[in-house]
Write a structure and sequence with these properties.
CATH topology of the largest domain: Alpha-Beta Plaits
Shape: elongated
Oligomer: single chain
Distance between the termini: 61 Å
CATH class of the largest domain: Alpha Beta
Structural class: alpha/beta
Largest sheet: 5 strands, parallel
Number of helices: 19
CATH superfamily of the largest domain: Reverse transcriptase/Diguanylate cyclase domain
Helix content: 40-55%
Number of domains: 3
Radius of gyration: 27 Å
Strand content: 15-25%
């Protein structure tokens, strides 16, 4: 049953992935494995149909919950196990509730083999199988990967913002990078303790490790801008890590020049005597602090870029680029499962007049409330919204027939026009127009089907405008194609 298991590991740290594999092998589970750290690589790896997925929760450019939601939608038959130090009990329970096969803390890997055996013995979760293959209602729906990915990104954005009413970009750019940390991996305890005192006096947070394996685990948990060590093999290992280049490594030497030369060739940035103190020691610390500030800022920038490339900073809807990536995947998924799919195009009637009469600041407030009213009327974690530009929004409704899509659009239209939009200065009544394109069953998946659906919904929106605004018009792909060909 466990011979030559095909394992997919979602992990940005090579050493951490190797620790997981070694633990499984030590417990009698043989496997071949592949490691990925980005969404694109994860989607490609799913095509190889692995027997099991093991995922960290937090990666610099991707996150485990997003990987889980993609796997739930794209490959629900593959058991998914979290091995993470950051998932937390509440999110672990949420993941298990929605079909994850298990959750193991990184410091508790000795129980991993038992969890893996149980997951493989159970096979695919019935809940996950049914949730992807049949339309669901109510709380049972696990949501599509695009919608849940947007929710996950919004959570990161909400945690990032220091003031809820501040523009996201401004708040992110004004954030302070985390305090740099130093790691001590020195065999002699007296030397290790003395270096710890010196580093603490320089306002550096200090971690210690007793050996190379423990040091690699510490480095997997967080970025350390500075490391003092007397272990040359560890230096080589650290330089192989994805984030190893941002660590300033100082070799602690007993005075032998040959060892110092070997340390530099292994990747050390400098050497210091084991009895170093005073200015010579502080020189390394000062250099490391400068590198630390840059490394921490770079780490924030990578993480924030992933958020801001997905989320529109004004409305918290998806960005146009995100829509152009994800909607074709929604079409492919619906075609593969033979399910319905709908897209709505919506914009605010006479929005230019609002900007001209009240100013762009009021216009921005109207856009935010408009998107919020739309989002409040959709299924959480299942439907999703993207801002395509200006006041035009696309609303994606998976597993939704044409009649239901028109009903949703009409309900949203009524919600927009039911009450005035309140700003800090005045109340503004607005209406919105909608265009609908829906397929009761997506059959086949031609490469341009997503584009044809978007064109049909956009043409229907234009028709709503032409007929007097504040209305819903259903479009047809065939009609749109005929108009384009005749033109």
């Amino acid at each position: 049953m466990f011979a030559n298991m095909q394992l997919l590991i979602v992990e940005d740290n090579v050493s951490d992935a190797e620790l997981t594999v070694r633990q499984l092998q030590a417990d009698g589970i043989d496997c071949t494995w592949m490691r990925v750290a980005t969404e694109a690589a994860f989607r490609d790896a799913l095509l190889s149909a692995p027997d099991l997925i093991i995922s960290d929760c937090t990666l610099p450019c991707f996150d485990g919950m997003s990987a889980f939601s993609i796997a739930t939608a794209e490959a629900p038959e593959i058991p998914f196990v979290f091995v993470s130090g950051t998932l937390g009990d509440e999110r672990a329970r949420e993941a298990l509730k929605h079909g994850a096969a298990g959750y193991i803390a990184k410091g508790d890997r000795e129980h991993l083999a038992q969890t893996v055996r149980s997951a493989l013995a159970r096979g695919p979760s019935r809940h996950r199988r049914e949730s992807d293959r049949a339309p669901l209602c109510g709380d049972a729906d696990p949501g599509t990967d695009a919608a849940r990915h947007l929710l996950a990104r919004r959570r990161v954005l909400d945690e990032t913002l220091q003031q809820r009413d501040s523009p996201a970009m401004t708040s992110i750019m004004l954030r302070t990078a985390p305090s740099p940390a130093a790691l001590l991996v020195i065999e002699a305890q007296l030397t290790r303790d003395r270096f710890a005192r010196l580093l603490s006096s320089a306002n550096l947070e200090v971690d210690t490790a007793r050996n190379a394996d423990e040091a690699l685990e510490r480095l997997a948990d967080r970025v350390h801008a500075l490391m003092f060590t007397d272990n040359i093999d560890l230096i080589r290992s650290v330089r192989q890590l994805p984030l190893g280049e941002v660590t300033h490594i100082v070799f602690v030497s007993s005075g032998r020049l040959l060892l110092q030369s070997d340390a530099v060739h292994a990747g050390a940035n400098g050497c210091v005597s084991s009895d170093a103190r005073g200015e010579h020691f502080l020189t390394h610390v000062t250099t490391a602090r400068r590198i630390a500030d840059f490394a921490a800022s770079l780490q924030l920038a990578v993480r924030d870029n992933g958020v801001l490339s997905t989320i529109d900073e004004l409305t918290s809807a998806g960005r146009r680029h995100y829509f152009e990536q994800q909607f074709p995947r929604e079409v492919e998924r619906a075609a593969r499962l033979g399910q319905p799919l709908a897209i709505l195009m919506a914009d605010i009637d006479h929005f230019k007049r609002i900007n001209d009469e009240h100013g762009h600041q009021i216009g921005d407030e109207v856009l935010k409330e408009f998107c919020q009213r739309i989002s409040d009327g959709l299924r959480l974690g299942r439907d999703w919204v993207a801002r395509l530009g200006g006041d035009e929004f696309a609303i994606v409704l998976p597993d939704t027939t044409a009649s239901k899509a028109c009903a949703v659009a009409d309900r949203l239209r009524e919600t927009i026009g039911a009450g005035a939009f309140t700003s800090r200065f005045r109340e503004i009544s607005i209406t919105a127009s909608f265009g609908v394109c829906a397929l009761d069953k997506v059959c086949g998946s031609s490469s341009d089907l997503a584009q044809r659906m978007v064109r049909a919904a956009d043409a229907a929106l234009y028709e709503s405008k032409h007929l007097g605004r504040n209305r819903v018009t259903a479009g047809c792909i065939a009609d749109t194609d005929e108009r384009l060909s005749s033109a």
